Q: What sequence folds into this?
């Protein structure tokens, strides 16, 4: 039976029957294999997503993998049967930012799968075929469901521009943090420090490539060349900045609560730090993540700790919000 999760309004959801929508011109119909659940999905459910970045009623789900079942006019028929993942941002393709490849800065306004457009917490998903990235024939679709967060981390890694022999760090030990460790390890750093809030995350961090692990609050270095912040709090951003040498490079990927105390601008200027930020992933970052995954250099499957049927959406929300360090990535399966 085809089903979908529908969040009617904050705190209210139902499991509804789902009728696949035939693809129109330029579109593809994808049979969803798995969909990841992240903190932003919980924000949608709780109702604390920033205004303008969600539209109810809504079928969530922006991290997904699947197989193309049908295509509309103007789409190559060779896509049918291929394993795919897909970008979420519904960019206009014609504004100056889109032409520059900065599709997450599209000036036409924000539209994204799973937030303002129907998402993948359903048996099928119909979306513009131009957003699809084709995977190798032997790709593990369960692992591939994590390629959306991997693409966001790939965007951070590209902006960090870490070079072989540099000393690098990651603040945050969740899914984004562990993926950031993997991307930074690939550039052969002289050292790779991970900073977390619980000792239980040390083993996973080292398995993904960390050479050192410290707890926030412990004595920390202040001479790293590059740091990626992946925890989403203002305190994590401040910790990340403090890890850097003068002239170091900081990439922020998390979104702290509005109004939180941020970085000290005097310190940023005097220390001449480069600060870059990531919100979503442009096509180049997606292509980078898919290429690294396809080459066997990125295996996110060990991050998955729970796989539930789509009908257990409520339990998935509880798991994601529980703060249990034993809960890693939660996937829903149609």
A:
């Amino acid at each position: 039976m085809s089903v979908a999760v529908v969040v009617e309004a904050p705190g209210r959801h139902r499991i509804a029957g789902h009728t696949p929508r035939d693809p129109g011109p330029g579109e593809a119909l994808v049979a969803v294999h798995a969909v990841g659940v992240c903190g932003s999905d919980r924000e949608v459910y709780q109702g604390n997503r920033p205004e303008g970045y969600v539209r109810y009623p809504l079928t969530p789900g922006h991290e997904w993998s699947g197989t193309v079942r049908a295509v509309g006019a103007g789409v190559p028929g060779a896509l049918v049967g291929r394993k795919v993942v897909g970008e979420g941002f519904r960019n206009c393709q014609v504004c100056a930012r889109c032409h520059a490849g900065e599709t997450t800065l599209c000036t036409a306004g924000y539209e994204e799968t799973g937030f303002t457009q129907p998402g993948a917490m359903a048996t099928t998903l119909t979306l513009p075929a131009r957003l699809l990235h084709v995977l190798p024939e032997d790709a593990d679709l369960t692992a591939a469901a994590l390629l959306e967060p991997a693409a966001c981390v790939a965007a951070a890694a590209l902006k960090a521009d870490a070079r072989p022999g540099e000393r690098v760090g990651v603040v945050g030990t969740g899914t984004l943090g562990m993926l950031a460790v993997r991307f930074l390890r690939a550039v052969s750093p002289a050292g790779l420090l991970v900073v977390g809030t619980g000792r239980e995350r040390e083993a996973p961090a080292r398995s993904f490539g960390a050479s050192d692990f410290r707890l926030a609050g412990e004595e920390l270095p202040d001479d790293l060349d590059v740091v990626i912040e992946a925890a989403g709090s203002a305190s994590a951003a401040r910790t990340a900045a403090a890890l850097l040498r003068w002239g170091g490079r900081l990439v922020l990927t998390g979104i702290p609560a509005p109004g939180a105390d941020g970085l000290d601008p005097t310190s940023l200027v005097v220390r001449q730090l480069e600060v870059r930020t990531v919100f979503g992933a442009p096509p180049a970052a997606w292509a980078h993540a898919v290429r690294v995954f396809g080459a066997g250099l990125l295996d996110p499957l060990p991050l998955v700790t729970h796989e539930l049927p789509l009908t257990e959406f409520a339990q998935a929300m509880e798991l994601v919000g529980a703060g249990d360090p034993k809960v890693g990535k939660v996937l829903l399966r149609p």
